[in-house]
């Protein structure tokens, strides 16, 4: 086997794992392999997938974004407050996503201009954003939106079959894949993650690349927040806790290197679906939620360990 | 015989890196191991130090057959290696690095005073008295870090010392110190394997030489009985007519002019001009401020005083982006940390400075065309432009860095140690590229520690001494001695 084939096989790893787990589940549960169930899985996956797409950019850059869950909550509260105050739902949704982008830009500025390590910077903003969400909502859920448009974003179907969040996620995926693979910006994300100094000397606008990547991560977290808020028909200031870990898990399962410079967004999509399938399957098999955590964590560790040994 | 390696085979997948290689090292000799990049020198040494297992072949140490499975086992047999890439941990102190993994302890507590004293002894053996053992290793100059590594090998009581390009980062004086030390070790019966591309040094310091080519053993010679040309022929399998190809460029008007340049720390009052088609060499010892000139002019370090003109227009580059927009390129000193993004492909590295694009979307057809033109122009040997740049040999990696800057059609090019870690054949090719660039009107500033290279490649030579200019010499009339004299502060 030559290096090229090995690399291809290595890239196929996450997909093979997904197929393997799906096969096992379809044997063990008759309900798993049905169109309705699979579409349901994809709908559940969409929130984590959107956040994980942004996280892929951040991790390719060699960074990390711990604030995604807090950004989701704060922008969700912002949208709900606006709609409660009578703002047009479409406008409120747009403003919410822009607010998420602005929160991400704050991360980006602290990291690029302030030269703060991403882990520390986003740990700090995570706490600040979460606090602001609690302040703005007075710690209580905001409920009762009377908007068909907004309800459709999380709960609607296209052609009475495909859930709207799945379509949103796929559109985002295609756009982001294009951004990463076909544009100068995407190229620069890989370059800065691979070697920041060499990129700087080659004239790459390193700070601007960082700023935009964290802005993107913020916007995608807010978009995930839109879907969640619509699904629940309420904005919770405590929403999205621990989502950063699911997103990081999806990115890592997909084969993107935590040290930056190497990885691909298709892997992240597969990683997110893998986590979703696992959740769904364990529910169908009525595994206790305590054991579910043990199994999920073990699968992630196993995947990363296999990945390690394949690289040797 | 101290070391005898017989019939060593090693393959990585389908690629045979070593085929039936023999190597013999005697006690008390300095044995040069030469070959072009990719000839298998490093792999052979990695097998000897237990980093790779060999596929076939036998190793004897002191006449006893051994199987070396790990660097630890090699160490126990008295085999130590000083790597080209420094292996010190920058955040730890000199003494902590020296005793890393074999700290002296009593009841689990460190015997700091004893280690401190021993560290001083080993440094004194190397003739170094002004390194504080408590200093962080990362704050030392590259040359000094290497000295610490050598001290570390000495402290292991090594009988076999493998040195991989040890002088690449050393100043002239440090090199002399190193050679004296090597002679001293030799007289004590230590066998030294000396891996280097610097032919002058090999003739100066080595007793024997073994040459590898394409993974095969070509032969051994006694240095005193062999000639330079013969070794080059053994290495490349053909004669290289010109080590330094001659250039016949006509100098145009002044392209780049610098007056009274100062940075905030090292250099002060540097003035020079470079004409179109001219190569201005920059010589000097380590730390004399050679690289700082390029750094400051390229906008990587702040300029505190001075004026710069490009084609008669005053310019002030505050960042690499500005410098590049003026048509200035910079082939940096260390290609692994500053020159290349090793995880990216050859193509992506080449177009890092300037990828053809429309509305931010890369035009892959135009990019492929640009890249393949540059690959052909610089004869970069790679199977595929999409291959990771990491998989290329040193010389070809360096050509990728050149290609990256050729992509911006530079008016001025700074070269910092353009042939460091590049083999003889690769060097000749890089010299050709430099000459071609000059002939096309590019003004070139070439910083180099190799005096023969500076003398042969430059039109004029700026000599630096402690951050100041010690004069600009005409390369036709200057000699190694006159430049060294100026570089060491002689008048």
State the helix count of chain B.
Answer: 17
Helix/strand class of chain A:
mainly alpha
Overall SS class of chain B? alpha/beta
CATH class type of chain A: Mainly Alpha
Percent of residues in β-strands of chain A: under 5%
Number of helices of chain A: 13
- Rg value of chain A: 19 Å
What shape does the CA trace of chain B take? Answer: globular
Strand order, biggest sheet of chain A?
1-4
Instruction: Specify the helix fraction band of chain A.
Output: over 70%
CATH level 4 superfamily of the largest domain in chain B: P-loop containing nucleotide triphosphate hydrolases
CATH topology (fold) name of the largest domain in chain B: Rossmann fold
Instruction: Please indicate the percent range of residues of chain B in DSSP E strands (runs of 2 or more).
Output: 25-35%
In the CATH scheme, the class of the largest domain in chain B would be Alpha Beta
Total separate domains of chain B: 2
The biggest sheet of chain B amounts to: 6 strands, mixed
Protein name (chain A): Ribose ABC transporter permease
GO molecular function (chain A): transmembrane transporter activity
InterPro entries (chain A): ABC_transp_permease
Membrane topology (chain A): Multi-pass membrane protein
